[in-house]
């Protein structure tokens, strides 16, 4: 077997390389040849092919994503913006918070447990690479129809994988979503988010500076997992006799990751690290090229020094391996010994594999021969950029014309009652406790709120009570009807959820899940969603700090609903002031904030009762969202609200049901003037919340709403305890015992999945 | 001078800092102990915290039991050092034979995290004196391998000698339906046993996590777990 060295590549310009099998297009390969001035070596081709992949280069989405920067609102809170491992936000008192959401969709369909587990592992390493201690994770999940046989394979595996990995890391799982829709049948969405906390001065970036500084690879040994592409190189070009069947999905070891967290944080605390990068997609190819291209010099790497799990791996495979639980640090020579000692303390393997040079080339050696000699920027940053054609699909008009407001509505109290039970017991609206009870939400001892609260909340300072809140939301049905406003509604809901718990929304991360960018209709959905999100972030004053794009979520011609998932991070000065969802005390007054209109397009009601998707999603009024948020935060801070719940999918009746069941207390409701009972209960108008106000605070609360111009309608009272037979009653329409609501709400998911 | 209570950190320990916080809130001084270090730093008692030490590889607690720090703890416990094992710590104690029986995977095969109602069956141990016998308390539970098993003779002996310290009882979450399909016994433990003690009452192990029931704002929002730590503190101060 001949080693394909740089010299060899220069001498043999006519050797055909399997660039197409590695996913490169002809013009992309020609561009590589042009950059290098010769054909690439096998190792160089491996690096370019993974780094220029859609996943790593964002080549289809980049031209649209620029808007997040161009339209970014002025914000003093943003310490590190888009482009780093994760954005960093100032939350006051010297603390900085980093957070991000990523997708692990495709691996989780192939191998649900490991796919979901390594999704958690990857996002957590992004957080530690910024210098932060991870303090919580969240998991927005979407599956096919709840009663589809394959959902029973995918969902329990995904949930067990998230739990198995996250629980073992000691990270509380505080939020997320679980949504079922047939459009996700062959393409479940497994998004994973994480939050980390650090002091301002501890922020670390992925860059390799200072000639002579050492490059240290630490964590797990490198194995043959996740390198389907490289084995094509190895087997077809260089050595036909070599076994090439490698598992494409990586296998996670949360124990190793826990050690990696502790030893990395200890190294940070002793200020031993100049730059750091985690190894995720594209493994060492990514880490070395990104560290080198973000720093001031070049890099010299000896691949023979990489600790291997499998000694037969070729250099191309080592460069492409996506073995989990690995990090790469740049350390000054005099601090190397101490860094290695910390790794040894935590039984973490650490090896110096190279050093920063004063040149501008990334040079990689194998058995003493140079096999890579590239400008790292061309690998990491100069990937192709596509202006993919996009066009509004011809079916969009018909879809929007199929007005959900014209669907037959329940006639009379009995039908209303029946549809309420069906709604709160439908898979999307039912309790997800069967799932969330498999996650540890308590570890670290700082969880103030966790699912099913409107947002998760973590205390970050025990003395002052400073805390952060995070909510993630997305509604693919709304986005299918109107991607521009659908994306804005996702942001509005997450923003509202954060404010409902009493926290002030500060910044945004997103995970944009779409079908194939090669389909102009999908590309239009993507372009519209990004434009909508960027416009709304600008208007709400919440910058996008980073995120992730997942394309090709499609089976054959059928793409998923466009599904932008938006995460909003908020800050609360004292977590003791937080507002929970559950009704607290009998006699408290229920207020509906905002305007309720006849808006049923994309609603849960239209799905559950009519299996319908058509019309327009609810109107977006961001100025109203901002006002509502200010009122909710003030009510929380000044003790005017004892519980609050945002109104979104399922409308008011869903919110009342959840608040009642969580608190074990009933409610008596009166349909306000100007509304019919059906619209009152099921409308999904945005910009609304349900608030329970102590009688002593009523005047202060209504005065505040009146002065600020926010409609506040008294709709009822918290009444009765579940053990005494409490009911949710809508006067003149129906009465439903809490026990009956509870059975409907809580037995669906276990019945489908257990 | 207050009492010093050690908290061991094994690789993969997760609730070690939380346990230190609980000890501090109870008024004692938490002392971090490292698994590779045989030195117990002159602590007056030791807590083995929850987590997945050594990733629960081989068997929960099976590798930790052989760590250097455990060598000293096993020897000292046999001569009266009070030891509390929480969750993974309980698993380590059974693997170390400081407590009888063993832990298997939950009978429903899922990780479970919920608030759990317990009855205090023995309020005479070093770690439960601040409870009343028969008192019912709510302590969060979170585990994968929490099913306590032992042979019938051992179970009869534990019952006869009053060494069952906590039992799972109906109430709290399973009534509220938060974990559908799982009854009052969250893992299939024999005779609803949640925690046990040794012959002298100095070593106690339980699956639920008292360190997550010490503040009204976090954990399960109750302080039912504090008496574990005040009990040992009083014992040490009066000794």
TrEMBL record, chain A:
Keywords, ordered alphabetically: ATP-binding, Cytoplasm, Ligase, Magnesium, Metal-binding, Nucleotide-binding, Purine biosynthesis
Residues that hold Mg(2+) 1 according to the record: 102, 548
InterPro entries, per the entry: PRibForGlyAmidine_synth_PurL (IPR010074), PurL_linker (IPR041609), PurM-like_C_dom (IPR010918), PurM-like_C_sf (IPR036676), PurM-like_N (IPR016188), PurM-like_N_sf (IPR036921)
GO MF entries: phosphoribosylformylglycinamidine synthase activity
SUPFAM superfamilies: PurM C-terminal domain-like (SSF56042), PurM N-terminal domain-like (SSF55326)
Top class in the EC scheme: ligase
One Pfam family, short name: AIRS_C
Domain Phosphoribosylformylglycinamidine synthase linker: 21-59
EC number: 6.3.5.3
Catalytic activity: N(2)-formyl-N(1)-(5-phospho-beta-D-ribosyl)glycinamide + L-glutamine + ATP + H2O = 2-formamido-N(1)-(5-O-phospho-beta-D-ribosyl)acetamidine + L-glutamate + ADP + phosphate + H(+)
Localization terms from the record: Cytoplasm
Pathway: Purine metabolism; IMP biosynthesis via de novo pathway; 5-amino-1-(5-phospho-D-ribosyl)imidazole from N(2)-formyl-N(1)-(5-phospho-D-ribosyl)glycinamide: step 1/2
Ligand binding (Mg(2+) 2): 126, 278
Domain of life, per lineage: Bacteria
CDD domains the UniProt entry points to: PurL_repeat1, PurL_repeat2
Domain PurM-like C-terminal per the UniProt entry, residue ranges: 211-366, 585-727
Main location group: cytoplasm
Active site: 55, 104 (proton acceptor)
Residues covered by the PurM-like N-terminal domain: 83-198, 453-572
Binding residues annotated for substrate, in chain numbering: 103-106, 125, 250, 322-324, 550
Transmembrane annotation, as ranges: none
Binding site for ATP: 58, 100, 510, 547
Quaternary structure and partners: Monomer. Part of the FGAM synthase complex composed of 1 PurL, 1 PurQ and 2 PurS subunits.
Function of the molecule: Part of the phosphoribosylformylglycinamidine synthase complex involved in the purines biosynthetic pathway. Catalyzes the ATP-dependent conversion of formylglycinamide ribonucleotide (FGAR) and glutamine to yield formylglycinamidine ribonucleotide (FGAM) and glutamate. The FGAM synthase complex is composed of three subunits. PurQ produces an ammonia molecule by converting glutamine to glutamate. PurL transfers the ammonia molecule to FGAR to form FGAM in an ATP-dependent manner.
Family: Belongs to the FGAMS family.
Protein's recorded name: Phosphoribosylformylglycinamidine synthase subunit PurL
Native species: Streptomyces physcomitrii
UniProtKB/TrEMBL annotation, chain B:
Keywords noted in UniProt: ATP-binding, Cytoplasm, Glutamine amidotransferase, Hydrolase, Ligase, Nucleotide-binding, Purine biosynthesis
InterPro entries given in the database record: Class_I_gatase-like, PRibForGlyAmidine_synth_PurQ
List of catalytic residues: 87 (nucleophile), 209, 211
Chief localisation class: cytoplasm
Subcellular localization: Cytoplasm
EC number: 6.3.5.3, 3.5.1.2
Pathway given in the UniProt record: Purine metabolism; IMP biosynthesis via de novo pathway; 5-amino-1-(5-phospho-D-ribosyl)imidazole from N(2)-formyl-N(1)-(5-phospho-D-ribosyl)glycinamide: step 1/2
Keyword Cytoplasm: yes
Annotated Pfam families: GATase_5
Catalysis: reaction(s): L-glutamine + H2O = L-glutamate + NH4(+); N(2)-formyl-N(1)-(5-phospho-beta-D-ribosyl)glycinamide + L-glutamine + ATP + H2O = 2-formamido-N(1)-(5-O-phospho-beta-D-ribosyl)acetamidine + L-glutamate + ADP + phosphate + H(+)
Keyword Coiled coil: no
Segment forming the signal sequence: none
Family matches, as HAMAP family: PurQ (MF_00421)
Purpose: Part of the phosphoribosylformylglycinamidine synthase complex involved in the purines biosynthetic pathway. Catalyzes the ATP-dependent conversion of formylglycinamide ribonucleotide (FGAR) and glutamine to yield formylglycinamidine ribonucleotide (FGAM) and glutamate. The FGAM synthase complex is composed of three subunits. PurQ produces an ammonia molecule by converting glutamine to glutamate. PurL transfers the ammonia molecule to FGAR to form FGAM in an ATP-dependent manner.
Subunit structure: Part of the FGAM synthase complex composed of 1 PurL, 1 PurQ and 2 PurS subunits.
Protein name: Phosphoribosylformylglycinamidine synthase subunit PurQ
Gene source species: Streptomyces physcomitrii
Gene name linked to the record: purQ
